[in-house]
């Protein structure tokens, strides 16, 4: 695995992993945000799995994974996303996958991750088209839902998480 460095340029700690051929991973630890770019495959999925303990230690309530610039994901990448969800559930956190392309959205349904994929929202009108002259409001319902799930998981305790995982198998 490549080494990691902590970026001091950001107000939030950002872990920048050295580039791996075909993939980039930016980890905003305290915000619980992972930005994936390029290809998530057998050669690169270990980086995503390695980010899990860092997020567990930071204890954000919601882990947001930005897949907007992910161009490819194979079965190993899907397994890494499932592992990330399990690690989050074990830590009492929820996962939201943002920006998944249509094909990836279909594949995520096969591995029971479709419930954590953020909905695709219709394009908002441009600020010029707004009657008030203000930018349109941002809809964050998927994050609210994820936070609610996280609160429920934390109040139910670790045993409930293990029961839910056993029921899914």
Largest sheet: 6 strands, mixed
Q: Any guess at the CATH architecture? A: 2-Layer Sandwich
What spatial form do the alpha-carbon principal axes imply?
Answer: globular
Total of helices: 5
Strand order of the largest sheet: 1-2-3-4-5-6
- CA gyration radius, whole angstroms: 17 Å
Termini gap:
30 Å
Order of helices and strands: EEEEHEHEHHH
Which structural class do you get from the secondary structure elements?
alpha/beta
Classified in CATH, the superfamily is STAS domain
Hey, roughly how much beta strand do the residues contain?
A: 15-25%
Query: How many structural domains can be distinguished in the coordinates?
Result: 1
Mean pLDDT: 75
Question: Would you state the CATH class?
Answer: Alpha Beta
Low-confidence stretches: 1-12, 133-142
Helical coverage, percent range:
25-40%
Number of strands: 6
Q: Which topology does CATH recognise?
A: Transcription Regulator spoIIAA
Pfam family, one: STAS_2
Biased composition (Low complexity): 125-138, 148-169
Domain STAS: 34-117
Protein name: Anti-anti-sigma factor
